[in-house]
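Methods — Computational structure assignment.
A single polypeptide chain was analysed. Its primary sequence is given first, followed by the predicted tertiary structure written as structure tokens.
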Amino acid sequence: MLQLPDYPWNQLAPYRELAAQHPGGVVDLSIGTPIDDTPQNIQDALAAASNSHGYPTTHGTAEVRQAIVDWFARRRNVTGLGVDDVMPTVGSKEMVAWLPLFLGLGAGDIVVRPQIAYPTYDIGAQLVGATPIAADELSQLTDEQRAKVKLIWVNSPGNPTGKVRDVQSLAEIVRQARELGAVVASDECYAELGWGEVRDQVPSILDPRVNGGNLDDLFALYSLSKQSNLAGYRAAFIAGAPNLMPALVNGRKHAGMIVPGPIQHAMVVALNDEEHVRVQYDVYRARREALAPALRNFGLQIEDSVAGLYLWCTEGRPSFETINRLAELGIVAGPGVFYGTAGEKHVRVALTASDERIAAAVERLNSSVNR
């Protein structure tokens, strides 16, 4: 039997119980699952394609692949991407977990991921017997380790930190990866959620300013879960690496990893409609602007958090102590230690709650200071 670490979120159970005792009910700001309605035009597209009697294509319909290519050109400044270089995936987590397998990694290979990062990067390496190493820069590795690096994960905007890498930073990672013969996979799922000066300024690994126009060995992952409230659709895609994509498509065919046909049709509508993305952006911006000052008033310092759906906070004490303080107010957040030892004095606070629940959290945070 494969032995993997326990699912970390199970550790929140006693804090959820404590929060549930609050007379005003729980405000859950932990997981970060979208709670707003899926746009009606996307629901209609799903329904219109519901007579789906044949097997869908693993590589994706011509329509969805063209929509992905067009979206990258329009929203991410990506040129030179062809319809053969993209593929829909069953959520982005599928590819985070299984990319090391499809790349043929195994024992003795090293997978590099950010120091503070989504746990599934490690799990993907462990599933194939490779070694995950937490490092924000390759200079943090020894020469012996660098020689074994086969896959480098980039996450910008970062989950949970909300950090954004600029063009120069990404270009340097690409340069070093090519010296090592390693693949770079960039998880860019929060790219449409840059705040303030960062709005529309989050570069992709596939941007020619980053890679000089050469997409080989470079993958970008994206999900419609956040920008379009499609988490339940598992609608995502991977793009780039024209030298590797045919083998990746073939591997997923053998594994039966296929995005359902109606979902692919709905993705076309979602990718071609920017208005609903702007509307949802404004909803999250308002929640962020309400919640951030209340967290500061409570005594938390917000670090990074220039993009994404989370506020990365610290009061200089262990994660679970802050989690307990928040739970006493009926608020559930995510322990930073879930994202690596470098996050052990932080908590992640999600913006994914209703306006009413966000308002309740703001009132509780502010009132606790005045008691």
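Note: The two ends are 52 Å apart (CA to CA).
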